[in-house]
Sequence to fold (758 residues):
Amino acid sequence: MSETTKADITRRRFLERAGQGLAVSGALGPLVSRAAAQNVPEPPGRKLGWAIVGLGNLSINQILPAFAKCEKSRVVAFVSGHPDKANKLAPRYGVDPKRIYNYENYDTLKDNPEVDVVYVVLPNSMHAEYTIRALKAGKHVLCEKPMANTPADCQAMIDAAGQAGRKLMIAYRCRYEPFNQEMIRMAREQELGPVKVVLADHGFSIGDPTQWRLKKAMAGGGSLMDIGIYSLQAARYVTGEEPVELTAMSYTTPGDERFKEVEETIDFQLRFPSGVLASCSSSYGYSGQNRYRVVTAKGWFELEPATSYSGLRMFVHKGNATEERILPVRDHFALEMDHMSECVMSGKDPLTPGEGGLRDIKIMMAIYEAAKSGKTVKV
Amino acid sequence: MSETTKADITRRRFLERAGQGLAVSGALGPLVSRAAAQNVPEPPGRKLGWAIVGLGNLSINQILPAFAKCEKSRVVAFVSGHPDKANKLAPRYGVDPKRIYNYENYDTLKDNPEVDVVYVVLPNSMHAEYTIRALKAGKHVLCEKPMANTPADCQAMIDAAGQAGRKLMIAYRCRYEPFNQEMIRMAREQELGPVKVVLADHGFSIGDPTQWRLKKAMAGGGSLMDIGIYSLQAARYVTGEEPVELTAMSYTTPGDERFKEVEETIDFQLRFPSGVLASCSSSYGYSGQNRYRVVTAKGWFELEPATSYSGLRMFVHKGNATEERILPVRDHFALEMDHMSECVMSGKDPLTPGEGGLRDIKIMMAIYEAAKSGKTVKV
Fold:
């Protein structure tokens, strides 16, 4: 856990606050709006300049608004194949229209010293190319997950970062926000004793059948690559271990036009070296599942929702009682971008480097292999 | 779902009752105590006489007290290897001390016309013998789950019932109580659309390392046979289908004195013919897990706790809201025993006959095989 963000966690602020006359949402609302309203002093260094590559829903609805909450990061450039969209967004975020790039002149970013970090928010199949080109342009790169569609692409990205002497971080935003960090802390510090099992479920009912997430060549796979990766990540970061073997079972509804190329549902079980098991599920076919529970001999702790952009809730069960644990509500994207800026400024390695992204891809390939072969796969 | 109990379900009594000034527990408390205080008229037929075989914790704490809530069943005999225990319990439940049997004179039950039904509440390895002896004595049998330790024993029990022309029912009590029945109804009637996946977790931290549940010869297996069977049952009764293949993964903490002979944790995945998957877990090693969730494309519905003797809670999620669904709180054992008495009186077949018990044993053997081989097993 990074020192920067660990200090942000206010521990054990239980629901009893509600008993003091504050509604749950009310208890957090003031903290959030007060922080937003404060005249936050500039950090010791400057704010780093960011270029956002790809102006899809995630960039428009989550990443760009998050810069308002950043202390070390500011957006200074867009890269997009849609100049109309970029031109419309530029004034809202104070981006100089001259700093709007397209995929042809992308490499000229190297001539723009204002851009320190490039955030790749493109379809999965484009991650490797646009990460490597940015690294070659001398920029540090934050790349959305999954890192790429193949381990070979991931390795090429890691190698490119090494050759360029630039940072490469994968955008596992949940590692940077207080609720998931508290789950990690509780597991690692064994607050309820050693972890026995992790139960993780992520899925949603995917819409538009024409979107890139449903094209095998662009997405690399189906629900596992997009949403099941949260179940996998949770099992990995809660235990702090790497799985040694796994089983999987997949199902795709025949005739569902959304799933002509990629899997709908895939469930998987992981075994970790310490003996911890994880039972995980992933689907594009069902109503929003977004939870994980960590069970010990003494109790359990869980998040539901666990990895949504906002609205996370934590529950802790011990003895005969279940309590809600209230934690600060923070913008996940602002935290992860500031972590990247901090790493660039200080020279530290990111908490979620390319190597971790590569491991996820290797494990997901093994999950697909297990589902296909019906056999336990060693990883 | 039996007609008798189906009518008992009061549907969709949501938490909004609480908004009418009734606390949740308060809303149900009066119903329960009023029913207990009522002078319930005798049913048209007589109450059948029951013999309880085995006076362990389940009999003492759950089954015997449940007769007070039965309308068609009364306890008239005990079978026990501990005469002191039987003699102490007899006056409390109005059992004639002459109707206390032991395992030697058990077969003389055939000479006692007061006993219509024998309830076998013994360690698993004894189920077959004591069920078959009771059937040969001309009695109907309700047998605790798991039905037996091997499919061969189960088949012998089914055959014995056929030869004796007597009813054989397995004590899957959750099939007889309103919460689980409402889950089944919602799934089968597709209230939120077709079921996509069932997520079921059952486990607890087992105590006394000397108990029979931890002896392979008596229990037949570990957590799967005792508590994992609830996850398996939930997946089967919610879908109304039989699994066609499964995978599994098991772990037992080395050196834990409780688990010298049987498995601690076993997780398993089931595939049903319709394409529904179930992701299930079972453990003797962790704090109480007792839940299952059924997910569709439109929402989900769950019980947590799901299969405890009491205190079940149901939650339904659709649109953006999760609601608690309040249902009548009923004694599970009274409902299952009265179902058995009703079947004996009317000649109907029990909802949970021996054939269902045999299927569970076969599936659990396949789960053990999958965990051992690391391969998908067809069932």
